[in-house]
């Protein structure tokens, strides 16, 4: 504990994910006073056809904006 | 909020997912009185070898039925 | 399958939840062609001090609006 | 998106949670270049009798340490 | 890793949860060859009015059976 | 119910997953007295660049050990 699960868009670079995991772990260490080793983080990538908002799949919302 | 996460079998068509996301969002709007923009939906696809029921991976349960 | 998990604000009435569960199940039956019995739905309630957006706990965002 | 779900021990103060949510949101803004408004965070509290590690409920692991 | 999250009905005794956590951890050690310390397990309790199946909240399904 | 979600490293063989799903289901039957048919299990595979611990992506932690 704590265990963090993140739902995000795919396509983040290794460098972006590396930096995010470092910063989130630091946030727990600073705010909760836990050891870095106690923080586990999972990243879930959702394709544009596998998530939606406001009743639209993201692939369709994108198409609407571009069209 | 609300945020909806759905565990499902893979292979649903874009049209099926489009319709599902629309209908679930409508359900929140009608039943909870929230705005469509507040509803986010994630679809997780699980291969037949990555989920099970009754002690059997689905890939084996399928084989049993077909066999 | 499918299994649906919903993160929501607390305080929804039994009638609201009853209607939502019915409508979401119907959405799967209509859009995916699955049987109603195959649809399981979980509702998770998050207090205003246990979720946040835009860097603010909801309890603080509310206070800001009201203040 | 992104949506963050955190499994943690209960008993964190409002101030601790406020600081954590702020810092995690900042992490996404800095590392991923997203807007703060796009980041939603959920905190799940697990009592000592509702989580375990190494085969022991935490309530028992604590007792073992103290005993 | 692995991290296990369990959605269950409330009301399980401490003894039942203790036994379950032990057995599930053993399952990972035996089947995956991981160390017990690497296995973390979370138990989520869902009230009868916060989960449903086949379009019915469990509280209503129960009432239907009893009625 | 119960529904079990497992976050794990990829690369487990079908035989390992088959055995795990069987043993975890047995754990519920023995400890909770539920029927095997009521237990559903989902396996989520996380690549080494999609999970981290102690502030490091696993891909980097591995490199550090090997280097």
UniProtKB/TrEMBL annotation, chains A, B, C, D, E, F:
The keyword Isomerase applies. GO terms for molecular function: isomerase activity. SUPFAM superfamilies: Tautomerase/MIF. Residues 2-57 form the 4-oxalocrotonate tautomerase-like domain. The keyword Isomerase applies. Pfam families: Tautomerase. Keywords: Isomerase. Belongs to the 4-oxalocrotonate tautomerase family. This is Uncharacterized protein, 4-oxalocrotonate tautomerase-like protein. It comes from Hahella chejuensis (strain KCTC 2396). The lineage of its organism: Bacteria, Pseudomonadati, Pseudomonadota, Gammaproteobacteria, Oceanospirillales.
């Amino acid at each position: 504990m704590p265990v963090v699960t993140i739902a995000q868009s795919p396509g983040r670079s290794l460098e972006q994910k590396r930096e995010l995991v470092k910063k989130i772990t630091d946030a727990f260490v600073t705010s909760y006073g836990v050891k870095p080793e106690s923080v586990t983080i999972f990243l879930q990538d959702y394709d544009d056809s596998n998530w939606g908002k406001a009743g639209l799949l993201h692939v369709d919302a994108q198409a609407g904006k571009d069209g």
